[in-house]
Amino acid sequence: MHIMTIEGVPYEWINQLQEIHAHVFDGANLPVEKLERKEGLLCLMAIEAKRIIGFKLGYIHPDGVFYSWLGGVHAAKRGQGIASLLMHQQHACILAMGFKKVRTYGRNERKAMLITNLKHGFDIVSTFVDDKGRHKIVFEKLLE
Fold first, then answer.
1. Of 26, 38, 32, nearest in space to 10 by CA
2. In angstroms, rounded to a whole number, what is the distance separating the alpha carbons of residues 12 and 28?
3. What pTM value is reported for the model?
4. What gap in Å lies between CA 11 and CA 16, rounded to an integer?
5. Among candidates 59, 88, 54, 84, which has minimal Cα distance to 71?
């Protein structure tokens, strides 16, 4: 397995990225147009045998903080540290880009991600209810 990092939309991998996104997020669609609208999009993909087995997407939030947006690992590959590896690589990339802080949102329904964020030094800084009525937990981490 290796990690591939692409700045911008990973057009060559888009079908596989959409497939794994749907797998991780209960069939949810990830339109190319949505990716194209994200300023400073950074895409990390865990690749094994020419297949994406995990991914992490982020972009520059309008307030200038790097926002770690979406990520996940194929169910058959969970528990092997792939999400942590993707997170570490993302943080190294954005630190090299000059960012000092990373932010992400979590939901109580996705406890594994909440735990992963806490284990990797994120702090809970606030909560809010999004426009779909879902409670979100805001995590931030200072990068070193």
1. 32
2. 20
3. 0.93
4. 10
5. 54
Q: Beta strands of 27-77 (E only): which ranges?
A: 42-48, 51-60, 66-73
Q: Is 45 left (phi over 0), alpha (psi -120 to 50) or beta?
A: beta
Report the DSSP pairing between strands 135-142 and 123-129.
antiparallel
Q: Which two tokens stand for residue 36?
A: 């194209």
Residue that has been written with the tokens 């880009």 in this structure: 97
**Assigned architecture for domain 2-142:** 3-Layer(aba) Sandwich (3.40)
Give per-residue pLDDT as tens, 79-138.
999 999 999 999 999 999 999 999 999 998 888 889 999 999 999 999 999 999 999 999
Distance CA 40, CA 51 (A): 24
Note the residue count of the chain.
144
